[in-house]
Design goal:
The chain is α/β, with parallel strands linked by helices. Helices cover about 45% and strands about 15% of the residues. It has a single domain, classed as 3-Layer(aba) Sandwich (Rossmann fold), CATH 3.40.50.720. GO terms for molecular function: oxidoreductase activity, acting on the CH-OH group of donors, NAD or NADP as acceptor; quinone binding.
Length: about 260
């Protein structure tokens, strides 16, 4: 018989660094055991993992490719074998195009690379975890599962130099609606956090551009966002304080979505 640990278990994709690491750290502070699914070698991110472990909660790190069905299955099996439960899923993993190109020149290879990870992999990983959550509910376990998807302001903002990224994030927004609708009958709520300009490895390459835009007022709140800003929004969704809401979106973007004149 599989042992079920007493702590809530949070599964987070792409949580070895950046926004995902910030989320993992915040949920561990909330008292959750953490299970990380990431492509990076453990040795390269050991410092980040140790930072979470210092909080005294169980931490599981699994190196795997989100686009690979067997890797997804192996991860889920490992989590259930070690923890016996999954309470929270945070779909954070995502990539930008390796090279920004106008949509009139975007290659099929680049399109497939971004979509396979950001959307296809996330869709089928969510499907896998959602089915585990449904079984938990049917078995009468005292678990209130929740799913949080990390999309982007790019889900509705045109950036023709990285169209494949925008399309993938628009897809995540629809994925949120679909799973919120389908899983509501089981009491499984699905939410979306929509980051704006967040300082990570992904945005380091355009720091000067965004520094200028922020100074010029592209966001009412004139500063960069940071992983901890996203993490706090995820924490709210996972807290159970919004249990009569599903399919909801929190924009963590310094007010960019206001579209002011």
């Amino acid at each position: 018989m599989i042992k079920i640990i007493k702590e809530k278990v949070a599964v987070i994709t792409g949580a070895a660094r950046g926004i995902g690491h910030g989320i993992a750290l915040e949920l561990a502070k909330d008292g959750c055991a953490v299970a990380i699914f990431d492509l990076l070698n453990l040795e390269d991110v050991q410092e980040n993992i140790d930072q979470i472990k210092k909080l005294g909660l169980p931490v599981l790190y699994f190196q795997g490719d989100l686009t690979n069905e067997q890797a997804r299955d192996n991860f889920c099996q490992k989590v259930m074998n070690e923890y016996g439960r999954i309470d929270l899923l945070v779909n954070n993993a995502g990539v930008a195009p390796k090279e920004r190109k106008d949509i009139l020149e975007t290659s099929e290879e680049s399109f497939n690379f971004v979509m396979d990870i950001n959307l296809k992999g996330t869709f089928f990983f969510t499907q896998k975890i959602a089915n585990i959550m449904v079984e938990e509910v049917k078995e009468g376990l005292e678990i209130e599962p929740k799913i949080v998807n990390i999309s982007s302001m790019s889900s509705y903002t045109s950036s023709p130099a990285r169209g494949e990224y925008c399309i993938s994030k628009a897809g995540i927004s629809m994925l949120t609606k679909l799973y919120a609708d389908r899983l509501a009958e089981y009491g499984i709520n699905v939410y979306e956090v929509r980051p704006g300009i967040i300082y990570t490895k992904m945005t380091e390459v355009v720091t000067d551009k965004y520094d200028r835009l922020i100074e010029e007022g592209v966001t009412p709140i004139k500063r960069w966002g940071y992983p901890e800003d996203i993490a706090k929004a995820v924490s709210v969704f996972c807290s159970g304080k919004l249990n009569f809401s599903t399919g909801e979106v929190i924009n963590v973007d310094g007010g960019f979505h206001l579209r002011r004149l």
